[in-house]
Amino acid sequence: MIIYGTALLATCHLLGIFLGDLLGHALGVKTNVGGVGIAMLLLIVARLYMQQRQILPKLTELGVEYWGALYIPVVVAMAAQQDMVAALRGGPVALLAAAITVLVCAGVISAINRSERGEHEPVPAPLLHDNPLLTEAE
Questions:
Q1: Which of 60, 23, 53 is nearest to 38 (CA)?
Q2: 32, 87 Cβ separation under 8 angstroms
Q3: What are 74-105's pLDDT values in tens digits?
Q4: Comparing C-alpha atoms, which of 69, 74, 68, 77 is closest to residue 9?
Q5: How far is CA 73 from CA 2, 25, 28, 40, 67, in A?
Q6: What residue ranges of the chain have pLDDT lower than 70?
Q7: In terms of domains, do 99 and 63 share one?
Q8: Interior angle at CA 107, CA 111 and CA 109, nearest 5
Q9: Are the beta carbons of 4 and 60 closer than 8 angstroms?
């Protein structure tokens, strides 16, 4: 059954690549535009649709979760295929975009970390009288 999750991912991936190629052609560039992102969105939509209809077996869901966990490494591997030298020759826009992205990510992570800090533990109120159980035991 886990293989069905992989088959669902493969179907979404092929559709995403096809739609990414169509989008690239429509924009006038000869490359895939967002195919992997489209594929992952299709996978999310398909999974939610199947869960709402209760036609997604648990083992198939595990296969989908497995590939969902691998999403970031797949995107990093696909980004490594891009021609960074050509991007850098295109001007300082690529460097500026990278620097801004790093700064925004650092700011968002910092904000999330600050918002998740728990409140300080309240100091327990002092006892007004001694506990009778403690005084008897002495």
A1: 23
A2: no
A3: 766 766 666 666 666 667 777 787 788 889 98
A4: 68
A5: 20, 27, 29, 13, 10
A6: 1-2, 71-72, 75-76, 78-90, 117-138
A7: no
A8: 55
A9: yes
pLDDT the model gives residue 138: 47
**pTM for this structure?**
0.54
54: left (phi over 0), alpha (psi -120 to 50) or beta: left
Domain limits for position 33? 1-82
Please state the domain count of the chain: 2
Burial class from Cβ neighbours inside 10 Å (0-12, 13-18, 19+) for residue 74 reads middle
pLDDT value, residue 101: 87
Q: How far apart are CA 77 and CA 65, in angstroms?
A: 19
CA distances from 123 to 22, 120, 127, 134 (A): 62, 9, 12, 22
Q: Give CA separation, 9 vs 43, 47, 58, in Å.
A: 6, 10, 16
Q: Are residues 31 and 92 in the same domain?
A: no
- State the Cα–Cα distance between residues 78 and 70, nearest whole angstrom: 12
20: three-class secondary structure by DSSP: helix
Give the amino acid at 72: I
